Amino acid sequence: MRQAGRYMSEYREVRARTTFLELCKSPELAAEVTVTAAERLGVDAAIIFADILLILEPMGIELEYSEGEGPVIHNPICVASEVDRLREVEDPGALNYVYEAIRLTRRSLREDIPLIGFSGAPFTLASYLIEGGGSKNYVHTKKLMHDDSGAWHAMMSLISRALVKYLNAQIEAGAQAVQLFDSWVGCLSPDDYQEFVLPHTRNIISNITAGVPVIHFGTGTGSLLELMREAGGDVLGLDWRVRLADGWQRVGHDVAIMGNLDPVALFSSNDEIRTQTSRILAQAQRRPGHIFNLGHGILPETPVENVVALVEMVQEMSAA
Ligand code: CP3
């Protein structure tokens, strides 16, 4: 999940000198933040420092990250008739800064630590585009989806075409796996997921450069796991609301699984973290294809020493 972030003093120091968006757009700094976080935590893989929403800018969307409020979109697509305003991303070169950060990171990261590229998945990106920021009930998103399915599918197809180019360009630059974050797709009913999301996600995943693993992640997806499996991905991400053993059983042991410690567990004692971690590892039963991770992003107030302790625990318990 997130590795760099405000919970880490090394990150706060870099971040104090610049805005979040400027940091994403400075390849040297983004690479430094990526490598520092991976080294500080001792993790087995690094995720490039960027954000899921960056791909919206070349579509003509004005993006800002405001203190406290999170992402804000100044010109959201409020109604179906505005979908035409979205620009086709013909040339993913607008995001050259991400590819450059990947190249620089790959150069300074330990060779045996794989680097993960990523983006938001189409539904989650559409929800930001339409709501203008984070949302609780996704009223405008669902309304557009239900009231004008033609405009919805046109928008999702445009986003999907952009994502295929963007993720494959990250791979070309040196990303060794890519992750699609469908963070908010859990707000949908299974029927809506199947009709309005699944074909688009499937289309993207099937067009990712052959041989590069795709991690397909969502939260609150307990009722969508089988459908997400159908959409594709070499690895399915689980949050903590599902027992890992049950989730894996449901999607089949022929797909890899990632997860699923509650990020809030990191606020407890090392004993409690150890208890919850060993429960997850026991459920994975040492089957090949379990990637231990948090079930969602790390929270800003998380004590960094607990994250370091968690990584050590997982490495120790899985080696024993
Ligand atoms: O380890 C890394 O370097 C990870 C890079 C990364 C970021 N965002 C950097 C970031 C990743 C993988 C993300 C994913 C992301 N971004 C998601 C999916 C994961 C999830 O939590 O579901 C989502 C929904 C976003 C959108 C987003 N970006 C939000 C909601 C926010 C505000 C919330 C917050 O924590 O401030 C951001 C900003 C953001 N993205 C920060 C970071 C480090 C904090 C920005 C800051 O420094 O102020």
Task: Walk me through the structure.
Strand 7, helix 10 and strand 8 form a beta-alpha-beta unit. Helix 3 crosses helix 4, helix 8 (190-206) runs parallel beside helix 9 and helix 11 runs parallel beside helix 12. This protein has helices spanning 9-15, 20-24, 27-41, 96-108, 122-131, 139-147, 149-173, 190-206, 225-231, 244-251, 270-284, 304-319, and strands at residues 46-47, 63-66, 70-73, 115-120, 177-182, 214-218, 235-237, 256-261, 290-294. The protein has 12 helices and 9 strands. The two termini are 25 Å apart. It is an alpha/beta fold. The site of coproporphyrinogen III has 25 residues, from helix 3 and strand 3.
Low-pLDDT residue intervals, each spanning 5 or more residues: none
Mean pLDDT: 97
Order of helices and strands: HHHEEEHEHHHEHEHEHEHEH
Q: Ligands bound here?
A: coproporphyrinogen III
Please report which band the strand proportion falls in: under 5%, 5-15%, 15-25%, 25-35%, 35-45% or over 45%.
5-15%
* Strands in their spatial order, largest beta sheet: 1-4-5-6-7-8-9
Helix share, percent: 40-55%
Structural class: alpha/beta
Count of helical stretches:
12
Radius of gyration: 19 Å
Described by strand count, sense and barrel closure, the largest sheet is: 7 strands, parallel
Coarse shape: globular
C-alpha termini separation: 25 Å
Number of strands: 9
